[in-house]
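User: These chains co-purify. Model them together.
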Amino acid sequence: MVKERKHDRVRLFVRGRVLGYKRSKSNQYENTSLVQIEGVSTKEEVDWYLGKRLAYIYKCKTKKNDSNVRCIWGKVTRPHGNSGVVRAKFKTNLPPKSMGQKVRVFMYPSNI
Amino acid sequence: MAPSKPRSKSRNPLLIPGIGKFSRSKMYHKRGIWALKAKHGGTFPRHDPKPAAPEPASKKPPKFYPADDVKTPVPNRRKPKPAKLRASITPGTVLILLAGRFMGKRVVFLKQLPSGLLLITGPFTVNGVPLRRVNQAYVIATSTKVDISGVNVDKFDDKYFAKDKKKAYKKSESSFFETEKQEKKLPQQKKDDQKAVDTPLIKAIEAVEYLRGYLGTKFTLRSGTKPHELQF
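Assistant: Joint model of the two components:
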């Protein structure tokens, strides 16, 4: 049998949620998404995450490059408001179905 | 007088690019042309022009005249500097790899290579990470240090890690049908290098309590841990 692999999976990203697009009451700007990072609740805490890479990962029916899993890469650009929400720009704008979905906030490019 | 080294800095400081501080007559005085003239009896020393090389006998008119004047691009003389090493990364620091095949592994930093990449090793027998190059941005430096004085890393540079160039694929009938499977075997030289680097390292690691186990364990985020609050 395959040797049991303990601790083979490591989580090196912070979980986040897509809240929606940057918007005012009746206009939205889809080139920037808002992301809520787990455990971050103030504008000062966001400083650590600025510039970190983000990945929105989703599954599809058709296989591309042998995989049903696809990814849109992005970056944390700046804080949004005072409560730890973050603005992010992705390589291509996030699709609207991403609202409320999970996003991975990686710890690189690292500065520690 | 013996030929002297040409002066590197201009005597005429720039106020704005294109406008110097001193006028032409002032510069004449500053450069000491008056002294040169006095030395050579009132005239500036000049040499007769060298006899010009005889023009080639038959100069054919060019076959092709381009329709428009094409500007030649200015050659790029920029040489990028290697990335500045973070103050937290010193030889012997334990690093955490954040991405790639060995993500999460704790690894020992050896030195910065001329390209700017970091040379690291597991050591191999401790956590399976061989001598490898890694980019600073994909690494977290911990405060743990390993004594690296016994290790000699002078021979390693970027050329050591260069990939072997594949032979030019000659399309011929035979090669079409027989797919040449080139066995990728690690040359013994690399294995010996790994051992040479690791043995003194492991000695230093064994000397510290728990360090071997620490290097063997992977780093992972748990529920509730906030990286922006962690002290590495």
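Chain A has one helix and six strands.
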